[in-house]
Automatic annotation (TrEMBL):
Keywords: ATP-binding, Cell inner membrane, Cell membrane, Membrane, Nucleotide-binding, Translocase, Transport. Its main location: membrane. GO terms for cellular component: plasma membrane. CDD domains: ABC_NikE_OppD_transporters. Belongs to the ABC transporter superfamily. It is found in: Cell membrane. The keyword Translocase applies. It holds the Pfam family ABC_tran. It comes from Salipaludibacillus agaradhaerens (Bacillus agaradhaerens). GO terms for molecular function: ATP binding; ATP hydrolysis activity. The lineage of its organism: Bacteria, Bacillati, Bacillota, Bacilli, Bacillales. This is ABC transporter ATP-binding protein.
């Protein structure tokens, strides 16, 4: 397993928000964590990189390979975030400083992670933009000069810049229209195939789960109620809540090109 979350519990002063959640992600998985808003799935994903708000307390363990991420110091977890584990957030626009050009974001990101050659940093940034189908002219533009879809692609390029082993994508299509959302996920799937990274995909959209995931877990009110292979859960859900979610979802194949589902699971 590349990531094992074991009995993770997240509490505020007077409330348990995530209750003994356990998730296991293998190398190469596109693992979907599905649940309605407020189910705790985003907080669970944020706990992996020690990114929870200071008023929340976490218990349990989060093993990235053989290393418990919850026991790392602030300095140690910063070495892991971005290089081995990276995040793509729903609020991708908030990831960019509006008065700094796109290229400056790449340059700073690489410099922080030890890349000392300015020429090398530039070349790597251009290569990253090209990998997500963007022209190098965008390097010298400001975030507000890009469309939502373009900026989301830049966010993906930044997240994959250092070839992380695990990418955590948190509701990354929510702020995009349907067409842009599908394009972004196609791009992420393409980059996953090229790099071999694992993806933890936080979503409430069953259509995306049907198309891209190979394994998934269902979360309700802070608890994992069901997990397993995609086709087993979609075709033979066991938990009553899972059955309700699937029944209430739009036709899962509606509007999706055929022949692009990932068949691996287990």
């Amino acid at each position: 397993m590349i990531l094992s979350l074991n009995d993770v519990t997240i509490r505020s002063q007077n409330k348990t928000i995530v209750d003994q959640a356990s998730v296991s992600i293998r190398e190469g998985d596109w693992y979907a964590l599905v649940g309605q808003s407020g189910s705790g799935k985003s907080l669970l994903s944020q706990s992996i990189g020690q990114m929870l708000p200071s008023h929340l307390h976490v218990e349990g363990s989060a093993f990235f390979k053989q290393q418990n991420l919850f026991t790392l110091s602030a300095k140690e977890i910063r070495r892991v975030r971005g290089k081995k584990i990276s995040y793509i957030f729903q609020d991708y626009q908030g990831s960019f400083t509006p008065f700094r050009k796109i290229g400056q974001h790449f340059d700073e990101y690489l410099h922080v992670h030890g890349f000392t050659s300015k020429k090398g940093r530039y070349a790597q940034a251009i290569e990253a933009l090209d990998a997500v189908g963007l022209d190098e002219i965008l390097y010298d533009r400001y975030p507000f000069q890009l469309s939502g879809g373009q900026l989301q692609r830049v966010a993906i390029a930044l997240a994959l810049l250092l070839s992380p082993e695990l990418v955590i994508a948190d509701e990354i299509t929510t702020a995009l229209d349907s067409v842009s959302g599908h394009r972004v996920l196609q791009m992420l799937a393409k980059r996953q195939k090229e790099t071999g990274c694992s993806i933890l995909f936080i979503t409430h959209d069953w259509r995306h789960v049907r198309r891209y995931a190979n394994r998934l877990a269902i979360m309700k009110e802070g608890k994992i109620v069901e997990s397993g292979g995609k086709h087993r859960i979609l075709d033979h859900p066991q938990h009553e809540y899972t059955k309700q979610l699937i029944k209430a979802a739009p036709i899962l194949s509606k509007g999706l090109p055929s022949g692009l589902d990932k068949e691996k699971e287990g």
